[in-house]
Write a structure and sequence with these properties.
By secondary structure, the protein is an alpha+beta fold. The protein is about 25% helix and about 35% strand. The chain has helices spanning about 55-60, 95-105, 155-160, 170-190, 200-214; strands at about 10-20, 40, 45-55, 65-70, 70-80, 85-90, 115-130, 135-140, 145-155. InterPro entries: CYTH-like_dom_sf (IPR033469), CYTH_domain (IPR023577), THTPA (IPR039582), ThTPase_euk (IPR012177).
């Protein structure tokens, strides 16, 4: 999940905090106390992701490029840590190509996978809820036996800036406010989230591949 940029008018910032798993079997509005003010479950998604890179140049620069169900996406890190991440996501092929070129120096077309090679390939079953009208809670269960979740907020910059651009400083301040809202939300409903350190899907995937290779 992340920000979408088909053009400057559709830029979206995303802030997320990861959790290891849900602490309850079935997440419901009145399952524990305090209750969610509202909770709506979305249809289950089946995602197939192929991640691409070029000699780790993209990941080292804080960029992750993937094809999700056939559509290209690039997640660009805007700050934070693994567990507490701030991203912008690009979904337009021209924007993705430009960003890749800036990092790798390679200028290839979408038809040539932007000059990148596949590094990971797996499928995910995603359950998603919208809590308190704005927080997206997602639990991902991968086909190689790993699960991880995240609580996410998104902000459409066009709606905030009235069609103009925010400065980098304004974007960082906005994302910090979003992160603080998520932190407060997760503390308030701590009964829903399992304690412990979450492990990212790519980290778990590469660990599993190394184990299979032994």
């Amino acid at each position: 999940m992340a920000s979408r940029q088909g053009s400057k008018l559709s830029r979206v910032l995303e802030v997320e905090r990861k959790f290891r798993s849900l602490a309850v079997r079935d997440l419901s509005q009145h399952g524990r106390f305090p209750h969610f003010r509202s909770l709506r479950k979305l249809p289950v998604q089946c995602l197939h992701d192929t991640y691409y890179d070029q000699s780790s140049l993209l990941s080292s620069a804080g960029a992750w490029v993937r094809r999700r169900n056939g559509a290209w996406q690039a997640k660009i890190k805007k700050g934070g840590t693994f567990n507490n991440s701030k991203f912008e996501e690009l979904c337009d092929a021209r924007d993705i190509s430009s960003h890749i070129t800036r990092i790798t120096g390679t200028n290839k077309l979408e038809a040539d996978n932007f000059g990148l090679l596949p590094i990971a390939n797996f499928s995910t079953r995603r359950e998603t809820w919208i809590a308190d009208d704005e927080f997206h809670i997602a639990l991902d269960i991968m086909d190689f036996g790993h699960e991880v979740g995240e609580v996410e907020l998104q902000r459409v910059l066009h709606d905030i800036a009235g069609g103009g651009d925010l400065s980098e400083q304004q974007e960082q301040r906005l994302m910090q406010e979003m992160d603080e809202k998520i932190s407060t939300f997760m503390k308030q409903y701590s009964w829903a989230f399992s304690p412990g350190e979450p492990k990212g899907k790519l980290t778990a995937y590469f660990e599993r591949m190394r184990m299979k290779a032994i």
